[in-house]
Amino acid sequence: MTYHDRGNSWFLAQLKPNCAQIADRNLKQQGFRTFLPMEGGTRNRKGRFVSTLRPMFPGYVFVSFDVAGGLWRKIQSTYGITRLVSFGKEPAMVPLDIVSQLMLRCDTAGKLLPPKLLKPGDRVRMTSGPIADFVATIETIAPDRRVWVLMEIMGGQTRVAVTADQLRTV
C-alpha cells in the first residue's frame, strides 16, 4: 500500500450528513484516491444489539489529489461532499504522517484493527456486544487470548471475559 502518490497530497473533505459511503464511492468513480477509516461498534436497534461499522471521523473523508492540477474544484460539487476543509482560498493539506499512521492501523478495507499489545492494567473501551462503550480495566489475559476485564457496574466491580478484538485502548 502506498501512502503518497507522485505529486499528490492528502486533504479532508467535509461530508453531508449520512453520506460517507455515497461520497466515498462518488470520489473513487471520479478517479480520486480516498481513505475512510471505519471502526466497529454495537448499536441497540429495537432491543437487539447489532454490530455496525461507522466512520472513525464522522463527517469527514480523506482525499488524495494534486492541488496544482486544479481538479480539487470537482470535489466541491461531488454528491455527498459539503466542502474541502481549507484555511483561506486553498484546501488545507493533512500531514502525510497522520494519514500513513492511520492507514497502518487499518486493514485494506479501512477498518481499524484491534490493538496488538494489551497488558494487565490497561484501560479499554468495549467496541461490540451488549457492553459496548463501557470502559474497563484489563485484569488478566488467558493463554487462549481471552481477556478478563473488570468493569464498574451498579456500584460494584464485575469480571467479564471478552476477546481482544472487542477492545480498544482508551
UniProtKB/TrEMBL annotation:
Q: Which domain of life is it from?
A: Bacteria
Record-linked InterPro entries: NGN-like_dom (IPR006645), NGN_dom_sf (IPR036735), NusG-like (IPR043425), Translation_prot_SH3-like_sf (IPR008991)
One GO cellular component, as annotated: cytosol
Name a Pfam family for this protein. Answer: NusG
Name the GO terms of the biological process aspect.
DNA-templated transcription elongation; transcription antitermination
Q: Which UniProt keywords apply?
A: Transcription, Transcription antitermination, Transcription regulation
Q: Where is the NusG-like N-terminal domain?
A: 7-106
What are the transmembrane regions?
none
Q: Which SMART domains match?
A: NGN (SM00738)
Q: What is this protein called?
A: Transcriptional antiterminator RfaH
